[in-house]
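Final report, Chapter 2: Outcomes

The project's central promise was a pipeline that accepts a single protein chain and returns its three-dimensional structure in a standardized token representation, suitable for archiving and comparison. That pipeline is now operational. To close this chapter, we reproduce one record exactly as it appears in the project archive, with the input sequence first and the structure output second.
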Amino acid sequence: SELKSEWKAADEDKTTEHPLKSFKFNDTVVTTATARLRGNDKWWSQQGKMQLQISFNTFDKKGRFMGLRKLAFDAAEFNQSFLRDRLSMAVFRDVGLPAPCANNARVVLNGEYYGLFTSIEKVDKELLERYFEDPEGNLYKRNGGWVKKTNEMDLNIADLEALLAVKTLDQLLPLMNLEEAILEWAAEAVLPDGDGAWAGGLNFYVYNDPKTGFNVIPWDKDATFTRLDFDTDPYTYIKPGNAGRPFYEIATDDPAWFKKYIEALAYVLEHGYKVEVLQSRIDAWSAQIAAAAAEDPNKPFTTSEHLAAVQEKRTFVAQRHAYLKTWLACWQNGGKKKGKKCSPP
């Protein structure tokens, strides 16, 4: 009830951690968990239901649930299929990129079914330990500005300042794992994602791996797939009112690295954006959540709209794949840059 009151109150702090009597999943019960509201507050008055973050380490810094410190329960109003993040993060992982796990969850509050959510692993030390040989580096989140998310007690952010000061490729190469970044940008472009690092949005992290330099880690992929047109250009598109994407511009302005970007796009299309695989996942996962979606009492759309969004996503995947195959063919067959477009040989 406190969370609901806070969510509806326009002038209250929305980041208060509320102790939970218990957090239960099957037979696992955590009695030290807390919950707080999450998401962009400018949308809260329009959302059909609260978005939540559950923390297991608020009181006990070593507190974990199935190895996790936190879980995010996302319920973006425009994610009518309930599948955007889940599908997108699978694509990132399929091509070997560090990316959070995501699935769907029925959330029950005080014994009553509150609704269906996307359950997303937070980007934190546990994720770094899984993907990097050395997880002790600095992790930063782009969120308007930049927020340090690991080693917070150390106020030194000279590594980030050096990265943000970069103006040339020669300056960028010693600091960033550019091979990884190119692949991450390509994966976002293929989806496509209108609010991540590739598009000049805010939803991503960078991790300064002591061994490889800064790596890009995706986050918050509810702006993927049908949020943009299937024929969105994977090179030239940039988000209106974008926050800038200097590293992408520096890399793709260089002929050799632009070629690597084209190769990365083709790799993602072949290994991460297979039509039959994605459509099979859409079919299986939509069937898995069908009852929970239909019974969701707080979803801000109808069950018919949900089912239509699922079908729209199946169609979009095929259209996007076909468009990208044609788009890539020009560059792969000897096409040259003419402005920002491919000029056939």
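Archive annotation: The CA atoms of residues 279 and 315 lie 9 Å apart.
This record, like all others produced under the grant, will remain available to the consortium after the project formally closes.
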